[in-house]
Amino acid sequence: GAPTISISQKPAGVIPLGGSITICCSCQRDNGYFKLYKNGRQVRILELRGSKAEFSISNATQKDTGAYNCHYLEGDTVLARSETVEILVQEFCLPRPVLSVLPGHDVAAGADVVFRCTIAHPKAGCFLYLEGLIKAVKFLSKDEDYTLSHVHKGNEGHYSCQCFTRNASFEWSAVSKTLDLVVR
After folding, report:
1. Which Pfam families does UniProt cross-reference here (predicted)?
2. CA 78 – CA 23 distance, rounded (Å)
3. pLDDT tens-digit map of 66-78
Protein backbone atom coordinates (compact mmCIF):
# COMPACT_ATOMS: atom_id res chain seq x y z
CA GLY A 1 0.00 0.00 0.00
CA ALA A 2 0.86 3.65 -0.20
CA PRO A 3 3.09 4.95 2.59
CA THR A 4 1.69 7.34 5.19
CA ILE A 5 3.50 10.65 5.27
CA SER A 6 3.21 13.62 7.60
CA ILE A 7 4.21 17.26 7.66
CA SER A 8 4.79 19.55 10.64
CA GLN A 9 6.47 22.81 11.52
CA LYS A 10 8.95 23.74 14.26
CA PRO A 11 8.32 25.92 16.13
CA ALA A 12 4.53 25.72 16.11
CA GLY A 13 2.42 28.81 15.55
CA VAL A 14 2.78 32.06 13.66
CA ILE A 15 6.37 32.95 12.78
CA PRO A 16 7.76 36.43 13.53
CA LEU A 17 9.10 38.62 10.73
CA GLY A 18 12.82 37.83 10.54
CA GLY A 19 12.31 34.58 12.45
CA SER A 20 13.10 30.99 11.51
CA ILE A 21 11.02 27.88 10.89
CA THR A 22 11.69 24.29 9.90
CA ILE A 23 9.16 22.30 7.86
CA CYS A 24 9.51 18.56 8.56
CA CYS A 25 8.26 15.84 6.19
CA SER A 26 8.38 12.21 7.33
CA CYS A 27 7.47 8.80 5.91
CA GLN A 28 7.75 5.16 7.03
CA ARG A 29 9.89 4.43 3.98
CA ASP A 30 13.46 5.56 3.41
CA ASN A 31 14.34 4.84 -0.24
CA GLY A 32 12.63 7.78 -1.95
CA TYR A 33 12.61 11.56 -1.68
CA PHE A 34 10.23 14.44 -1.02
CA LYS A 35 9.13 17.33 -3.16
CA LEU A 36 8.01 20.34 -1.11
CA TYR A 37 5.20 22.48 -2.53
CA LYS A 38 4.02 25.95 -1.54
CA ASN A 39 0.58 27.05 -2.76
CA GLY A 40 0.64 24.19 -5.29
CA ARG A 41 4.03 25.07 -6.83
CA GLN A 42 7.18 23.01 -6.29
CA VAL A 43 9.68 24.80 -4.05
CA ARG A 44 12.39 22.24 -3.42
CA ILE A 45 13.41 18.60 -3.68
CA LEU A 46 14.30 17.27 -0.21
CA GLU A 47 16.64 14.34 0.34
CA LEU A 48 15.74 11.90 3.10
CA ARG A 49 17.81 11.53 6.26
CA GLY A 50 16.46 8.23 7.57
CA SER A 51 12.71 8.60 7.09
CA LYS A 52 12.64 12.42 7.44
CA ALA A 53 13.46 15.49 5.42
CA GLU A 54 13.60 19.09 6.65
CA PHE A 55 13.37 22.47 4.96
CA SER A 56 14.46 25.53 6.93
CA ILE A 57 13.48 29.14 6.35
CA SER A 58 15.51 31.80 8.13
CA ASN A 59 14.92 35.55 8.16
CA ALA A 60 11.25 34.90 7.29
CA THR A 61 9.26 37.52 5.36
CA GLN A 62 5.61 37.85 4.31
CA LYS A 63 6.61 36.04 1.08
CA ASP A 64 7.18 32.85 3.11
CA THR A 65 3.49 32.82 4.16
CA GLY A 66 1.61 30.05 2.37
CA ALA A 67 0.17 26.54 2.25
CA TYR A 68 2.95 23.92 2.23
CA ASN A 69 2.73 20.19 1.59
CA CYS A 70 5.05 17.30 0.74
CA HIS A 71 4.87 14.64 -1.95
CA TYR A 72 6.79 11.39 -1.40
CA LEU A 73 8.29 9.90 -4.56
CA GLU A 74 10.22 6.78 -5.49
CA GLY A 75 11.76 7.27 -8.93
CA ASP A 76 9.29 9.48 -10.83
CA THR A 77 6.19 8.04 -9.10
CA VAL A 78 4.33 10.04 -6.45
CA LEU A 79 3.35 7.48 -3.79
CA ALA A 80 1.78 9.81 -1.20
CA ARG A 81 0.88 13.43 -0.46
CA SER A 82 0.87 15.00 3.00
CA GLU A 83 -1.79 17.19 4.51
CA THR A 84 -1.21 20.93 4.17
CA VAL A 85 0.40 23.09 6.83
CA GLU A 86 -0.38 26.81 6.75
CA ILE A 87 2.69 28.94 7.47
CA LEU A 88 1.95 32.51 8.58
CA VAL A 89 4.62 35.20 9.04
CA GLN A 90 3.56 38.30 11.03
CA GLU A 91 5.02 41.11 13.08
CA PHE A 92 4.46 40.47 16.81
CA CYS A 93 2.75 43.34 18.65
CA LEU A 94 1.42 41.67 21.82
CA PRO A 95 3.38 40.64 24.94
CA ARG A 96 4.65 37.04 25.17
CA PRO A 97 2.16 34.78 27.00
CA VAL A 98 3.08 32.40 29.82
CA LEU A 99 1.99 28.76 29.60
CA SER A 100 1.47 26.87 32.84
CA VAL A 101 0.32 23.32 33.55
CA LEU A 102 -1.34 22.05 36.72
CA PRO A 103 -0.64 20.00 38.78
CA GLY A 104 2.77 20.06 37.04
CA HIS A 105 4.65 18.97 33.94
CA ASP A 106 5.46 15.50 35.33
CA VAL A 107 2.26 13.52 36.04
CA ALA A 108 1.07 9.95 36.55
CA ALA A 109 -0.90 8.23 33.79
CA GLY A 110 -4.65 8.70 34.32
CA ALA A 111 -4.32 12.13 35.95
CA ASP A 112 -6.11 15.26 34.72
CA VAL A 113 -3.88 18.09 33.51
CA VAL A 114 -4.93 21.73 33.11
CA PHE A 115 -3.15 24.05 30.65
CA ARG A 116 -3.41 27.81 31.20
CA CYS A 117 -2.09 30.45 28.80
CA THR A 118 -1.82 33.88 30.46
CA ILE A 119 -1.29 37.14 28.59
CA ALA A 120 -1.37 40.77 29.73
CA HIS A 121 -4.07 41.84 27.26
CA PRO A 122 -7.80 42.19 28.03
CA LYS A 123 -9.18 40.71 24.79
CA ALA A 124 -6.63 38.21 23.49
CA GLY A 125 -7.52 34.66 22.52
CA CYS A 126 -4.83 31.97 22.47
CA PHE A 127 -3.96 28.77 20.64
CA LEU A 128 -2.46 25.79 22.49
CA TYR A 129 0.06 23.89 20.36
CA LEU A 130 1.67 20.45 20.61
CA GLU A 131 4.88 20.17 18.58
CA GLY A 132 4.43 17.79 15.65
CA LEU A 133 0.72 18.46 15.08
CA ILE A 134 -0.41 20.52 12.08
CA LYS A 135 -3.38 22.12 13.85
CA ALA A 136 -3.59 23.74 17.27
CA VAL A 137 -4.68 21.39 20.06
CA LYS A 138 -7.25 23.93 21.30
CA PHE A 139 -8.39 27.55 20.95
CA LEU A 140 -8.67 29.24 24.35
CA SER A 141 -10.75 32.37 24.77
CA LYS A 142 -9.73 34.92 27.43
CA ASP A 143 -9.22 33.26 30.86
CA GLU A 144 -10.24 29.81 29.55
CA ASP A 145 -8.26 26.73 30.64
CA TYR A 146 -7.87 23.47 28.73
CA THR A 147 -8.24 20.23 30.70
CA LEU A 148 -6.70 17.05 29.36
CA SER A 149 -8.46 14.19 31.17
CA HIS A 150 -6.94 10.77 31.90
CA VAL A 151 -3.55 11.55 30.35
CA HIS A 152 -1.49 8.75 28.78
CA LYS A 153 1.93 8.40 27.13
CA GLY A 154 0.43 9.65 23.83
CA ASN A 155 -0.20 13.06 25.45
CA GLU A 156 3.49 13.60 26.17
CA GLY A 157 5.31 16.27 24.23
CA HIS A 158 6.35 19.89 23.86
CA TYR A 159 3.42 22.29 24.44
CA SER A 160 3.34 26.04 23.80
CA CYS A 161 0.74 28.76 23.30
CA GLN A 162 0.40 31.89 21.21
CA CYS A 163 -2.16 34.67 21.48
CA PHE A 164 -3.81 37.15 19.15
CA THR A 165 -6.44 39.89 19.01
CA ARG A 166 -8.98 40.56 16.30
CA ASN A 167 -9.10 44.29 15.73
CA ALA A 168 -9.13 45.79 12.23
CA SER A 169 -6.43 43.19 11.59
CA PHE A 170 -4.91 40.36 13.59
CA GLU A 171 -2.18 41.21 16.09
CA TRP A 172 -0.03 38.34 17.38
CA SER A 173 2.19 37.60 20.36
CA ALA A 174 5.41 35.64 20.32
CA VAL A 175 5.06 31.96 21.20
CA SER A 176 5.33 31.13 24.91
CA LYS A 177 8.25 29.19 26.30
CA THR A 178 7.75 25.46 25.68
CA LEU A 179 6.55 23.15 28.46
CA ASP A 180 7.38 19.46 28.30
CA LEU A 181 4.60 17.19 29.55
CA VAL A 182 5.91 13.88 30.90
CA VAL A 183 3.49 11.04 31.74
CA ARG A 184 4.77 8.31 34.08
Report:
1. ig (PF00047)
2. 19
3. 999 999 999 999 9
User: What is the distance, to the nearest Å, from the Cα of residue 52 to the centroid of all Cα atoms in its chain?
Assistant: 16
Cα 16 from Cα 184, distance rounded (Å): 35
Q: Can you give the pTM of this predicted structure?
A: 0.87
User: H-type helices in 33-164, by residue range?
Assistant: none
Give the pLDDT mean for 127-145: 90
Helix, strand, coil tally for the chain in percent (to 5):
5, 55, 40
CA distance linking residue 131 with residue 166, whole number of Å = 25
Bridge partner list, 138: 128
Domains and CATH numbers, the chain: 5-90 (2.60.40.10), 92-183 (2.60.40.10)
Predicted local distance difference test score (pLDDT) of residue 142: 80
